[in-house]
Amino acid sequence: MASNNVIEQVGSVSHQNLLILIWTCFSCAFLVVSLRGFVRWKLMGSHRPTADDCWTLLALTSLLALCILDTLQLPSLYYITAVLQGSIPLSEELIYHTQRHLRFQFPIVVLFWTVLWSVKAAFLALYFRLFVDLTFYRRVWYFLAVFTLLAYGGCITTLALSCGPNISNFFGFATCATPEHVWASNFSVYFSTIIDVFTDLCIMAMPLRLIYSVKVTWSQRLGLVTVFGLGFVMIAFAIVRANQVLVAKQFVNLTLLMVWSTLAASISVIVGTLPALKALITNRKKQQHTQKSNGSKSRSVRMGSLGSRKEKKSMGSNESQEEILRPQQPDDAKLEVRIKRDIVSTPSWPLPN
C-alpha cells in the first residue's frame, strides 16, 4: 500500500489530481456542447441536426473515448514515472507496464487528432452552408476540405510508421528505441503539430475577405477580432503540447504530456463551440427585437441560413444596410445580398477554432 501511495504521488501532477483534471475538462466540454444543442433545439427551434452539429458531436464522443483511455492508462503511466524518478526500484514489472502503456498510447494519439480534426470539420461544414452560391468561396472551400482530410491522414500515417513499417513495433518493449525510430517519432510530432497549426490558420483566414468587406462599428469589429482570435488559443496549446513531447536527450514528462493533451483536446471542443453558440444567442436576441418592433409573432431563424431564400424581407429592409458593404466583384455582390439578409442581424460572425 505504501508503494502504491508513492507511485501515485510521483510526477508533476499526482494521480488523483490528474484524474480530476481529465474528467473536469470533459465535463466542461460536455456542458458547453449541451448548451449549444439546447439553444438550437429550444430557443432557435432547429429540430434537425446540421452537419456541423454532427461533427461537434463526433468531437465530443472522441473526447469521451480519449478520457476513458487516459484513465485506464494512468496506473502504468505513474509506475513508469516512478521508476524513471527512482522512487521505486527497477524490476521486470516495468516491461509489463511499458507494454500496457504503449497499447493505450497509439489509440490515445489517434483519438486526440480525431478530436481536433472533427472541430475543423465542424467549421468547414458551417462554411459550406455560408458560402452556397458563391463560386470563389466554394472553390476555396473544396480545396481546403480536401487538404484538411489529407492532413489528418498524414498525421495517422506518420504515427503508424514512427516505429518502422511493422506497426507491432509500436507496442513492444524497447522495440522502438533506435536512432531511426527516434527520428521518425520526432518527425511525426513535428509534422502533426505544424499541419495542425497550418490548417487552423487556413480555416481562420478563409472568411478574411468577407470581414474586410463589412463596414461595422468599432464594438462590432472588436467582437469579430475576439471571435477570430479564438483559433490562436488552439495554436498555443498545440505548441505547448509539442514542447512537452520533444525533450532533447531526456525522457518525456508523461504526466505533463497527458495534462496538455487533455487540455488541448477539451479546449478545442469548447473553442469550436463558443463562436457558433454566441452567434446563435445573438441571432435570437436580434430576431426577438425585430419581431417586437414589427408586432409580429415569434418565429425561429435557423443558424447558418445564409443560403436560405425563405428569410423575411423585413430583416434586410432597412435602407441603412445598403451602406454596410462596399460593392465588389460579382461573387462579392452575391455575398453582399446574403450578408444583408443574415449577418446584419447577427453581428458576431462565427469563425473557426
Automatic annotation (TrEMBL):
Entry annotated with the keyword Transmembrane helix: yes
Domain Rhodopsin: 39-282
Domain of life from the UniProt record: Eukaryota
InterPro entries, sorted: Rhodopsin_dom_fungi, SAT4-like
Compartments in which it is found: Membrane
Location (main, coarse): membrane
Region (Disordered): 285-337
CC terms in the record's Gene Ontology section: membrane
Keywords: Membrane, Transmembrane, Transmembrane helix
Its membrane topology: Multi-pass membrane protein
Extent of Basic and acidic residues compositional bias: 323-337
Transmembrane helix is among the record's keywords: yes
Membrane-spanning ranges: 20-39, 60-84, 104-128, 140-161, 189-210, 222-242, 254-277
UniProt similarity note: Belongs to the SAT4 family.
Stated name of the protein: Rhodopsin domain-containing protein
Source organism per UniProt: Cladorrhinum samala
